[in-house]
Request: fold
Amino acid sequence: MSRSHRARRIASAVPLVALAGCAVLLVRLVQRQTGTTGLLVGLGLAILPVPFVLFVLTWLNQSARLPGRRLALCLAWGSCAATTMALFANGWVSDWLTTTEGSTRGQLLGAQFATPVIEETAKGLILLATMLPLRRRRPGLGTGPSPRARVRLRHRAVATGLVLSGITACGFAFTENVLYLGRAFTDDQQQRLESIGLGLSPSLRDYDGTVQTFVLRALLTPFAHPLFTALTGLGLAVSLTAGRRWLARLAAPAGWLAAVALHSGWNAAAGLGTHGFLAVYTLLMMPAFAAVAALAVWARSRPRGLPRRDRPAPPVAPAHPVHPVQPT
Reply:
């Protein structure tokens, strides 16, 4: 084995070791907050919506045609590295805001402003690394791609941004759901023990907090985090395929800011009561999800005027019939 080949293998192994370390650390941190039973219950409940989300993203990936190793990297980053970064950063910022602004105001500022910035930044870092290969020479700077190639590239870039952001956010939401569901189960179990003890068999009513958390996070909003991060992915896709220089420079920051704003609005809905939450869900989240879903369908479709790759080109008839030469 040559020295350069050995160096490449070591360089490729470093991220895997780092992600494995983050996974072990996360398991330990979540277990400290939920207990072993809460961790196992959270894992079992949080995994239920994941296959559905991954199925939708796999369908969309037929247009992006991304390799499995890149998808696995984004999934591991979202579920391990991004959540580890967000867990520590949110804790530090929350403690600082609570100390400087007071408990109530500090928690409000942390949930509505600091947390969206931290989490969307942590998830967006991997998009920069995985989407930069789409960068190309812009039209007008030398010889750009043909109009057909530009249309195909635009479809594929949008699909790539949606798939990679969705996969990353799916992993992030999974780990976050493990924590929230495990906490809810542990709290419900403690309240049950304090109220009725161990003499009666448990019922579903004893775990209202767990049921409500599962319905809210796994059934009503399984695409919440993918929706936020999709705006960052779309901004990067526009930035990497735009022909205008100003649009290429502004699209990525604008997408990130839109992701932070939508995430902030969603977090703010938690403090508005039931009616306020339903209003935000209906007037903000559902239209945003419908718009991103329409973009996904557009990116998944074949660009108009482009032939299918799997369909052979029709034979071209000669301009003038060719008659065989008759022997004399």
